[in-house]
Prior knowledge:
Blueprint: E1 2-3, E2 26-31, H1 35-46, E3 51-54, H2 62-65, E4 106-107, H3 140-143, H4 145-149, H5 159-173, E5 175-176, E6 193-194, H6 201-213, E7 218-219, H7 234-238, H8 243-255, H9 277-287, E8 291-294, E9 297-304, E10 310-317, E11 322-333, H10 337-346, E12 371-378, E13 398-400, H11 405-409, E14 419-425, H12 439-442, H13 447-457, E15 461-468, E16 477-485, E17 491-496, H14 501-520, E18 524-526, H15 533-536, E19 573-575, H16 590-609
Parallel strand pairs: 1-11, 2-3, 2-11, 3-8, 4-17, 5-6, 11-19
Antiparallel strand pairs: 7-13, 9-10, 10-11, 12-15, 12-18, 13-14, 14-15, 16-17
Bound molecules: flavin-adenine dinucleotide and iron/sulfur cluster.
Flavin-adenine dinucleotide binds at residues 31-37, 54-57, 87, 119, 121-122, 126-128, 130-134, 297-299, 334-336, 339, 343, 544-545, 577-578, 588-590, 593.
Amino acid sequence: xxxxxxxxxxxxxxxxxxxxxxxxxxxxxxxxxxxxxxxxxxxxxxxxxxxxxxxxxxxxxxxxxxxxxxxxxxxxxxxxxxxxxxxxxxxxxxxxxxxxxxxxxxxxxxxxxxxxxxxxxxxxxxxxxxxxxxxxxxxxxxxxxxxxxxxxxxxxxxxxxxxxxxxxxxxxxxxxxxxxxxxxxxxxxxxxxxxxxxxxxxxxxxxxxxxxxxxxxxxxxxxxxxxxxxxxxxxxxxxxxxxxxxxxxxxxxxxxxxxxxxxxxxxxxxxxxxxxxxxxxxxxxxxxxxxxxxxxxxxxxxxxxxxxxxxxxxxxxxxxxxxxxxxxxxxxxxxxxxxxxxxxxxxxxxxxxxxxxxxxxxxxxxxxxxxxxxxxxxxxxxxxxxxxxxxxxxxxxxxxxxxxxxxxxxxxxxxxxxxxxxxxxxxxxxxxxxxxxxxxxxxxxxxxxxxxxxxxxxxxxxxxxxxxxxxxxxxxxxxxxxxxxxxxxxxxxxxxxxxxxxxxxxxxxxxxxxxxxxxxxxxxxxxxxxxxxxxxxxxxxxxxxxxxxxxxxxxxxxxxxxxxxxxxxxxxxxxxxxxxxxxxxxxxxxxxxxxxxxxxxxxxxxxxxxxxx
Length: 613
Ligand SMILES: Cc1cc2nc3c(=O)[nH]c(=O)nc-3n(C[C@H](O)[C@H](O)[C@H](O)COP(=O)(O)OP(=O)(O)OC[C@H]3O[C@@H](n4cnc5c(N)ncnc54)[C@H](O)[C@@H]3O)c2cc1C
Ligand code: SF4
């Protein structure tokens, strides 16, 4: 393998400074630039570590490349989804989706119930450029699920260990929400959350129906700035005793504008009003002068020295196709849960013939996604509303946290873990699908009557999506396929997947609940309510909350990392994406990925200062 030499690159090289070319070594290599990689690079460089970030995708500039203001009629096919752009033409994803050309993966089953679909983004910032920005804290139960109901596994840390890092991440990225004091739905300390946006009419109707049914409907939590961040007070809380970092982040916070509630966040935000790694983590990290970023660098292995320490990583320079190597004192993998597993399993040596850090045999095991099921309905009360602006903050003004903890613990529900509910409605900008499929309401109409119907029903629909906890199981895992390789010659992953009755019954409960809410709103349910959860549940991976595969634990025989996400087998190798998750709470995982990455990076810094790494 060749040592990386910048002069060999034929295409423009973004961001990279001369450190790689001059042969300077780094304190830390961070693989991946999404939520986990971005947070790791931010925390490490703000405290003085010299970091090289390797990103498989291309550079991406959110200011010049974000199509925020275009209307759907300006896009091919009215902006609707295609295999290349599954979430529509304007979606911020570059070179990503369920399939990435030249980078296959193998599914052992293609059935709805047995398959795992793998979403990837190949761009600087990864999936954070277009994610939904829903940012919920895990609660105390979520770190100790086994202790609570005897299923799955406990994390070797508690909510109290993570809480200070949730505080910091919320203050840094900007999360709106409110403190409702509900069970296992933690409050944030004063000064962490931004005020939530005003609810839409449909949100208020759902809240009213919730009151009738005893279901709490509370302010959503999303990484969107409803007002400017507190750049006067937060920097000292984020970086105590570090005036240089405080100045950098205070300046940067002032350059981020507040949301103007008008454009879909999935396109990205060129005014930096929502969280993307590219707009929030990377600019201040680059401002430290301590971060180099090398894009188009497809890492395929962590290299190991004779002393059992990681020496660096091998990667394919996608601009030349050549095999390259870079070295550092510490290696942090944050390539997204499954890709981190793939790198570990492909890093074979005489010491680790079954993949690096895999003496437990657990690398690839206990892959989890979120349980998903949905129901839509139509509400006559919302028909023919006068035109008004309902663009709001791009999603989730309000939501329903899991509310049946006690009934569940008492065994009354027939499934062990809960779900939260994300819902939407209102008069969003009309697009190609607006006024389609009205026949179930109108019986079919044409001409003037159709126009009348389109106006009548526009904005009167509500949609509910359950997001529930999956319990890790032995049948859901990934491994290296013995035959198939990607276009770079790197062996690919093969996925195995199975839901347990806990998940399918939970999906059936979602269906029933959503129908009850729609009916309590005086509305009508669209389609059939599935009593068989196996038919209602979305395929594995399709909610795009995959975590696990290299789980954290207290015992090296049954886990891949210790409580610092440091691999048991290789002391200078750390994992800061979702791969170490030992459970996947109903709460969307990304806020926890970031809080954990900050926690782990603080630990790396402390150990490096002590010369223990
Ligand atoms: C449409 C959508 C909506 C979502 N909504 C939400 C939400 O509302 N809330 C929530 O919590 N989560 C949401 N998610 C999930 C969220 O995006 C992920 O949890 C989060 O981005 C994971 O961060 P990560 O750093 O692990 O991975 P990523 O953000 O995927 O970043 C990984 C990076 O590593 C790079 N990489 C991969 N392999 C290699 C390699 N071999 N070498 C070098 N680099 C590599 C990738 O190109 C990528 O840039 C959503 C995802 C999608 C797609
Ligand atoms: S809704 Fe607000 S945060 Fe989202 S893209 Fe538009 S301006 Fe940015």
